[in-house]
Amino acid sequence: MPSVTGAANLPVSFLDTTGDGFGDLNGINSKLDYLKDLGVDVIWLSPIYKSPLADMGYDIADYRVIDSRYGTLEDWDNLLKGVHERQMKLMMDLVVNHTSDEHDWFVQSKRSKDDPKRDWYIWRPAKYDSDGKRHPPNNWRSVFEGSAWTYDETTDEYYLHLYVEKQPDLNWDNPVVRDAVWDLMRFWLDRGCDGFRMDVINIISKVEGLPDAPVVDKDEEYQPASMHYANGPRVHDYIIEMREKVLSHYDLITVGETPFTHSTEELARYVLPKNNELNMVFQFELMHLDQPDHVDASPLQHHNWKLAELRAIISRWQVFKRDEGFWNAVFIENHDHSRSVSRFGNDSTDELRTISAKLLAMLEITQKGTLYVYQGEELGMKNFPRSWPLEEYKDVASQNYWNRILARRAQEQKKKVEEVDMKDVLDDFQKKARDHARTPMQWDASSHAGFTSGDTPWMRVNDDYKSWNAASQLNDEESVLAFWKKALVIRKQYPILIFGEFELILPDHGQVLAYKRTHGDSQALVLLNFSDSAAKVEVESGKWQFVLGNYAVEEGAVYDLKPYEGRLYVAH
């Protein structure tokens, strides 16, 4: 399991075979050979369950039904068959912190205070001020803006939703809820699913009493409150129970998503083998590198990052509790983050885009852990242009953040909303919005990049698809795709890259991230120039054999690097 390469797949944007503008399961099935040829061993599907798509399918209305946009259970069975025939595995997205408000569980829960499923969700009475005005039970802000509570007139209470109001949080303190979760997990595992990526699994246990969050922004009514729900008091009890009741009975891959958490010790509790919880977690310290460093910062705000910060994050996690068996999930893109070549590389010209996308591939394939590649990352897909208007940003996170900032500025500036300058927000969106990861896959130069035969894809295809697509790269030995294929072969060829010890070198270099890997009698040397100018590098000479690079390298012991150049050497 540790040596596998995972492919993170957003089905809605992968390939549409029906012409309705939405990617589907048969589209994935038709590209299994493409994924296998890339070097993929495990495919992680973002949610494909029945959903009103208030949050890209992370609002589930029925866990046992495939949404008709994506196909049927029979289509899923056929996909699984094709995956297994190619000796790959299929991992589902387990989204059980919350459901859709259209799920039958919640429909019953909100009928009355006496309904048997009332306690399946988190309901609380209103608070009233001295003037008799009604307020939510506490001041928690939703991750997607506004209050984390919505009032229900029928029962005169509020329900908690840490995300959008159509995503009510399940009450994990109720053992009947947990049993229902174990049951739906068994449904997919007995059908042949090979594991789960567990959505926001670290927030399923909330602090007792649901107290107010500290006020960090006096101008806002609702405050960030992750300290009251991330890594809560019983989260590990519940995951251990999950292990005992379900996971231990199957041979599985388990990956937990753990937002709002940078603490190494806190994250270790989920992963260390002695705790018997999960194989690994997706932690987001690297993904927050270009986010402002203050409590109320939004992931949609941009901050210029420094190499020293990147170096510190990479080295910290590469050496963390190695002797105790801590295992990393290595990634730099997914459906919740904009394109890596636009964030950490240079997409200003095609040449620099190609070179820096390959540099990032080298960073990824030379780290200890299980590597995950997001669809389009292997092509060097980039963010869509700044010229796209607000209307092209479909994500609820983008829309709600825009509305909050617009309303706040209009009030502060005493202007009509149409008079408020929001150019800086759009500047940040172009760099950071999740929407960039969700544009349709660019398969070829035909209409809509070959994603759909229909007239209208669910989201606009990036403007560069005619010159930047999979078909044009398949037969180009110098392409980003060809480089990724070669790099993934090398990663599996040299176990040192997956399992070796990590040693940071040149810790103060202003341009180059450099490190060694050691495994038994083998060594590897990694040199990565993260700047747009040449870099002089002095490393100890040795019997280094050049293995991989994104420029042609002359023989010899000269390690000076061109802009965005990466090199991998090995020695035995």
Structure write-up:
With about 575 residues, this protein is of the alpha/beta class. It has 15 helices and 20 strands. The chain has an eight-stranded parallel β-sheet. A five-stranded antiparallel β-sheet has the order 16-17-18-20-19. A hairpin with a 4-residue loop joins β9 and β10. α10 runs parallel beside α14. The two termini are about 25 Å apart. The relative contact order is 0.10.
At a glance:
The protein is α/β, with parallel strands linked by helices and 572 residues long. Helices cover 27% and strands 15% of the residues. α10 (350-365) packs parallel to α14.
What percentage of amino acids are in beta strands?
Answer: 15-25%
Give the overall pLDDT as a whole number: 95
The secondary structure category is: alpha/beta
Overall, the morphology is globular
Task: Please give the alpha-carbon distance between the first and last residues.
Answer: 25 Å
Say how many strands there are.
Answer: 20
Helix content: 25-40%
Per-chain topology:
Elements: E1 5-9, H1 25-30, H2 32-38, E2 42-45, E3 49-50, E4 62-66, H3 73-85, E5 89-94, H4 104-109, E6 123-124, E7 127-128, E8 134-135, E9 149-152, E10 157-160, H5 175-191, E11 195-198, H6 235-245, E12 253-257, H7 264-271, E13 280-282, H8 307-319, E14 329-330, H9 340-343, H10 350-365, E15 370-374, H11 396-413, H12 423-432, H13 470-474, H14 480-493, H15 496-499, E16 501-505, E17 512-519, E18 522-529, E19 545-549, E20 566-571
Parallel strand pairs: 1-2, 1-15, 2-5, 5-11, 11-12, 12-13, 14-15
Antiparallel strand pairs: 3-4, 6-10, 7-8, 9-10, 16-17, 17-18, 18-20, 19-20
Helix pairs in contact: 10-14
